[in-house]
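Sample 3 of the quickstart, ligand NDP:
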Amino acid sequence: MAAQLIDGKVLSQSVRDQIAKDAAALLAASGVKPGLAAILVGDDPASHLYVKNKHKACEAVGIHVADHKLPASTSQADLLALIDKVNRDPQIHGILVQLPLPKHIDSSAILTAVLPEKDADGFHPYNIGRLVEGNPIFEACTPRGVIKMIESTGVGIAGKRAVVVGRSNIVGKPVALMLLHRHATVTICHSRTVDLPAVCREAEILVVAIGKARFVTADMVREGAVVVDVGVNRTEDGKFVGDVDFEPVSKKAGWISPVPGGVGPMTIAMLLQNTLESAQRMVARAGTGAH
Ligand code: NDP
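Result:
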């Protein structure tokens, strides 16, 4: 039987519709419009496209965007000064620093300079620590989107065998922690995993984030599994494909997300959600007199 599609476009649209309503309600009740600072350093065309898409998506739901496009030659000190400025700006509730940064800039120092309360990407060590504790403020956008996609299937996470392939700080590790906090039994795989196909076949929930085109084949997938494909790979003929061999795997899985149209749109929706929630928290704190 063919797998059901986890349609990231449809799901992200329903999330965005709700965000638009909540942003309008916040504005009406408090006069506060959620604001995102989008910081982009250099000329990488893919990064420019990502920021443009995020900008459009924000404006469509009533989130104000302050774009900061800086030349590749920007010094680390100047970038830190800009982050300090947006950290202090009361109209900004979320800060996005588009990665990768030019090589002469220490990305870790930059991400750590972002105020944790405005860290809409969820990459600050404080927010990662809160996630490890199971008490997050901001959850990183892509992992949060992956969880929403799994939840949308109605297949409960608690008690399931979940396998995450990939252990990066921005996808694999946070996805695994989020699944763990939702009571899955989680295995994290990586390039040194022995007999990866056998481990993957145990998965009732399989999340793949490695960056290798069509790497996960049907023989690696358990009958009826929920398969979420985070990978984005460009083929020689210019097409985008995931890390999962979609056609054959979709004949075996119970649910599968496509690439494109899967995790990508959900990542953007979660950035909007994080920015909105940050604005809501700041308004609530101002209302209680807390700082
Ligand atoms: P990284 O390159 O940081 O990490 C890749 C991970 O995959 C590593 O842990 C690596 O293992 C593991 N890996 C690589 N090869 C194998 C293999 N043959 N078998 C098992 N594990 C392997 O990638 P990211 O996590 O940043 O991104 C992963 C993919 O997701 C990319 O295609 C990226 O473009 C995409 N992505 C998509 C997003 C979206 O919004 N749709 C957002 C973010 C990422 P090891 O640690 O041992 O090296």
